[in-house]
């Protein structure tokens, strides 16, 4: 019954709703924290910079003293606290040096002239406050500088270091178990016998998952056998937060994933209004979530983008927002029936807009389509486009 196809958005929502608990928290050195999700707000206990300081090599003085030649009464280098500035004098100061009490501007060294007595004469054009970086101009004491739920990258590490924090609380990485099903599969590196094909999904998924900062803790390839599938799932569920299987989720005689997961936990088998990737299984075995993607490599690829990525983000404790979509002008004609289609396209910026060129063969067995393109264009159900029309897309 065609009307029973489930829209992609409701399937995703249901999956995300099944993620109910936050991941465990661990403490890591700041140097090791890139890629982790922050489990606490980072609040600054200091002002950055802590004191007013000079942005130039030059001379610090009082604005009111500017008209007379000024003797140099002290020398202030970065890292060495100054004394209050004697009235009627100036201080030799270097970039990062603290502004002495009383001074209210810095003149850069190139702008001054020296008298025969080595007193400093400043130009007319100076203004109060010039060349001073005020205390707290970057961060104020008490500011939340990075929020919990943020995935840390090198920029955050720099900012967190700037407030003196060396250790942060993060969520433990999501542990993923991979399971490939299919009598026909062999691993690369071994010769192919008649009827066999190489297991590509495992490599595709492992790389994808690692690029999302999750950890692949186990991988098993099983034949189309109920017992093997059951045993592999049982072991995987004890090691991982999420099991991702490929293949065997249709309802043919060789498809054992559904009964095996049902025997160990609970499962929904969905027929999605989605192309590629109509059959999709989702459930749990105890506290381990399970997602079963169809075996066609492009279905695995698209299922990874559409479902696995947001699921991993939620499991990781990251704030999940819907993926930002771009708009591009299509250079092809296409028509959808009742399923939402994800077309592999090459997006090129030309004439002030994204131009979308579809890969010629959109068959879900053609994995080349993912390498020779850079984006997925989304065709809603019951939709038609021809050259010049606009489609939403995202980059891989
Ligand atoms: P299935 O979902 O098990 O019916 O598989 C659908 C198609 O994907 C079949 O042609 C399988 O041979 C192929 N396939 C399944 N798993 C893999 C895999 N790990 N790597 C490459 N192709 C696969
Ligand atoms: Mg199969």
Distinctive features:
binds adenosine monophosphate, Molybdenum Cofactor Biosythetic Enzyme, Chain A, 396 residues, 6-stranded mixed sheet, alpha/beta, Molybdopterin biosynthesis moeA protein, domain 3, Molybdopterin biosynthesis moea protein, domain 2, binds magnesium ion
Low-pLDDT segments, ≥5 res = none
- Kindly state the number of beta strands: 28
Bound compounds: adenosine monophosphate, magnesium ion
**Total number of helices:** 7
What is Rg?
A: 31 Å
CATH architecture assignment of the largest domain? 3-Layer(aba) Sandwich
Number of domains: 4
Short description:
This protein is of the alpha/beta class.
Describe this structure in words.
By secondary structure, the chain is of the alpha/beta class. The protein has 4 domains: 2-23 and 173-315, Molybdenum Cofactor Biosythetic Enzyme, Chain A; 25-47 and 138-171, Molybdopterin biosynthesis moea protein, domain 2 (Alpha-Beta Complex); 53-133, Molybdopterin biosynthesis moeA protein, domain 3; 326-395, MoeA, C-terminal, domain IV (Beta-clip), CATH 2.40.340.10. It has 7 helices and 28 strands. The protein has a 6-stranded mixed β-sheet, sandwiched between helices. Strands 22-25-24-26-28 form a 5-stranded mixed beta barrel. β24 (340-350) and β25 (353-358) form a beta hairpin. α1 (8-17) runs parallel beside α6 (297-316), α3 (201-211) packs parallel to α6 and α4 packs across α5 (257-264). The longest helix is centred in the C-terminal third of the chain and has 20 residues, at 297-316. The radius of gyration is 31 Å and the shape is elongated. The two termini are 33 Å apart. The model has no long low-confidence stretch (mean pLDDT 96). Bound molecules: adenosine monophosphate and magnesium ion (MG). Residues 181-182, 224, 247-248, 254, 295 line the site of magnesium ion. Magnesium ion (MG) binds at residues 181-182, 224, 247-248, 254, 295.
